[in-house]
């Protein structure tokens, strides 16, 4: 089943949702960098994953969820792990973090789609 068929017919364009998701990831990265100490980088990744999940839940679009998850991971890897400003994939832990953040985002997107479908299919009283 293609991802496009899971999208409700009345939603916003995917391209717009991807752009908004990028800005959500940038804002989450900036807020996380300010509020969470650098030594707790796993907590920083968790917050980025939650931000991607929350956005994907609201967007209810799997493509936007996946791209937002990858953007959140890239921003977290480049700016929230010392040395900051370098996007360097160092191996297994980075791949696990990528899978975790994208997985959280996709889970949020799937839940958002199911919520929209149940609200849409519910009979009006």
Structure commentary:
It is a single chain. With 125 residues, this protein is mainly α. The protein has one domain. 71% of the residues lie in helices and 0% in strands. It contains four helices and no strands. It is elongated. The model has no long low-confidence stretch (mean pLDDT 87). Keywords: Membrane, Transmembrane, Transmembrane helix. It comes from Nonomuraea maheshkhaliensis. This is SPW repeat-containing protein.
Q: State the distance separating the first and last CA atoms.
A: 33 Å
- The number of helical segments is 4
What is the CA-atom radius of gyration, in angstroms? 16 Å
Give the proportion of residues in helices.
Answer: over 70%
Tell me what portion of residues adopts beta-strand conformation: under 5%
**Backbone structural class:** mainly alpha
Strand segment tally: 0
Query: Any idea what the shape is?
Result: elongated
Number of self-contained structural domains = 1
Element-by-element helix/strand order:
HHHH
**Biggest sheet, in brief?**
none
Report the average pLDDT across residues: 87
Unreliable residue runs: none
């Amino acid at each position: 089943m293609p991802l496009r068929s899971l999208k409700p017919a009345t939603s916003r364009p995917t391209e717009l949702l991807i752009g908004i998701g990028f800005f959500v990831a940038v804002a989450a990265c900036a807020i996380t960098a300010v509020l969470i100490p650098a030594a707790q980088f796993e907590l920083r990744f968790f917050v980025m994953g939650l931000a991607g999940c929350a956005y994907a839940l609201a967007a209810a679009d799997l493509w936007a969820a996946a791209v937002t998850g990858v953007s959140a991971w890239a921003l977290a890897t480049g700016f929230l792990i010392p040395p900051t400003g370098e996007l360097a994939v160092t191996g297994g832990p980075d791949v696990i973090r990528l899978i975790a953040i994208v997985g959280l985002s996709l889970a949020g997107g799937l839940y958002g789609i199911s919520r929209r479908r149940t609200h849409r299919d519910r009979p009006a009283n």
